[in-house]
Specification:
Layout lengths: L2 H6 L4 H7 L19 E8 L6 H13 L3 E8 L2 H10 L6 E3 L8 H7 L12 H4 L23 E13 L14 H12 L4 E3 L7 H21 L10 H13 L9 H5 L5 H10 L2 E7 L1 H5 L10 E4 L10 E11 L7 H10 L3 H8 L2 E3 L6 E3 L17 H10 L3 E4 L14 H7 L1 H6 L4 H17 L3
Parallel strand pairs: 1-2, 1-3, 5-6, 8-11
Antiparallel strand pairs: 3-8, 4-6, 4-7, 4-8, 9-10
Helix pairs in contact: 3-14, 8-9, 9-18
């Protein structure tokens, strides 16, 4: 595949025209070498909240384990723009750390052009047995749904329903494991003047819906759903998801101030506070809520996270996890070495480096512990005791599977807002302005639109 085809998707028409002569494979496809004869592995990494030192340390560690290799590290907060220039000049990196879901859609475009290498041989049985269950069996790792891994999940953050741990246990409420038990608990606490559920904003239903789709129909159903399969919402599984969301958002189970707060400036924190104050029992969230609410959380309060309920007791649990991805361009000069680097990311040495990560405040120079958790079994065991560690331990247990991925990227659709259509409508389920049947039809129509404009 010619790289200029990919570059054209990111550049203006004028830039594409000027590029046509200069684009192509550099040095006749020869592998880059340093002045001392070492093979140069080019690693392009997005510079984000994890800081820069972690990538420098990983690069150094890889060099020490491969004495004839030099890692050339490129870090940028505008990596998509820099990579576009690199590809334009035929300067193709060997390894890229740049996630799905970025505004530029760079990784998605590379996938659409079949410009990312198949990494399935890296994720053999030996390696996958070391990883959190299901972490490579989803659309984020297998974007084509062909059973092959193209994007390596290098970090993960579990999400679920967060609650006050001290309200549950012997002589207290019983944690629900199924939706039937969840709504039964809702009926119980309603009689006590409480609600079983709230949400910060409707946007938090993204993780809730992803998990429900996997829970209702399994990973095959889920992977088809995120690719806008036309039968998603007319199927029995899809209808079950719609009906459960409608019931969850109904006045019978949703805290009364949820919708008003969710649509007010900063009101999401008021809904989160409702869980702290005991007005609502559960909310969808991630471990960042602990930091967000630290100033208003009373001393001695104990956060906890549970997996979202199952539709039947005999099902395994699914937990939606955000992942960050690393990948290899199909035309990487050092393809085999790049795959070794990907495998190295799951080594004990890198796991320890990531867990010990610190970021430095550029103004004060103060260092803060910011552990990065790779999806390696046992890695989260090394975290400090507390709710963050517990949330990771949950998804590592037997019978629990990680779900990841996002709705497939579409072309720009005039007048269509995916977030408002899918999540924003949930407010209307509470107010009665939208019925479950109307919501289902809205989703069916949305999926038809997205499928038509799928890139």
């Amino acid at each position: 595949m010619k790289m200029k085809k990919i570059v054209a998707l990111f550049l203006s028409a004028a830039m594409v025209a000027s590029m046509a002569v200069g684009c192509g494979s550099k040095d006749d496809g020869k592998k880059d070498a340093s002045s001392d004869g070492k093979t140069v592995l080019k690693f392009a990494a997005f510079e984000g909240g994890n800081g820069t030192e972690i990538w420098e340390k990983i690069a150094d560690a890889f060099e020490k384990s491969h004495e004839n290799v030099e890692v050339e590290l490129e870090m940028s907060s505008e990596l998509d723009k820099d990579l576009t220039k690199d590809f334009q000049n035929g300067d193709i990196p060997d390894v890229v750390y740049y996630n799905l879901g970025q505004p530029s859609g760079f990784t998605e475009t590379m996938l659409k052009e079949n410009a990312i290498a198949d990494l399935s041989d890296v994720f053999d049985e030996e390696l996958t047995s070391k990883l959190v269950g299901g972490i490579t069996e989803n659309s984020a790792a297998q974007p084509y749904g062909d059973g092959k891994v193209y994007l390596a999940p290098i970090t993960y953050t579990p999400t679920g329903f967060w609650y006050n741990k001290d309200l549950f246990g012997e002589g207290k409420y019983t944690l629900p494991t199924t939706w039937e038990e969840f709504f039964a608990l809702g009926d119980q606490v309603k009689a006590e003047g409480k609600s079983v559920f709230t949400y910060p904003t409707t946007g938090y239903f993204d993780t809730t819906m992803y998990q429900m789709l996997a829970q209702a129909g399994g990973m095959d159903f889920y992977n088809k759903a995120v690719q806008y399969d036309k039968n998603t919402w007319t199927s029995a599984e899809g209808k079950e998801v719609v009906d459960t969301i409608a019931k969850l958002a109904s006045p019978e189970y949703l805290w009364s101030d949820t919708v008003a707060n969710a649509n007010a400036d900063g009101g999401f924190k008021l809904n989160q506070q409702a869980v702290i104050d005991g007005q609502a029992l559960f909310m969808p969230n991630g471990n960042w809520v602990i930091g967000e609410m630290a100033d208003s959380t009373p001393e001695g309060f104990n956060w906890a996270m549970m997996a979202q309920p199952k539709f039947s007791a005999d099902q395994e649990n699914y937990v939606y996890t955000y992942t960050e991805q690393m990948w290899v361009p199909a035309e990487a000069p050092n393809l085999d070495l790049a795959k070794e680097f990907i495998e190295f990311m799951y080594s004990d040495e890198v796991v320890d480096l990531m867990l010990a990560n610190e970021t430095t405040d550029k103004e004060t120079g103060e260092k803060t512990a910011t552990p990065i958790v790779p999806p390696v079994l046992g890695a989260s065991d090394k975290l400090p005791e507390g709710p963050v560690k517990d949330s990771y331990t949950l998804v590592s247990q037997d019978g629990y599977n990680a779900v990841s991925g996002v709705w497939a990227t579409t072309e720009a659709i005039n007048g269509f807002d995916m977030s408002k259509t899918v999540y924003g409508a949930i407010d209307a389920l509470n107010t009665g302005d939208l019925t479950a049947d109307a919501y289902q039809k809205q989703l069916v129509d949305a999926w038809a639109t997205c499928l038509e404009h799928l890139k």
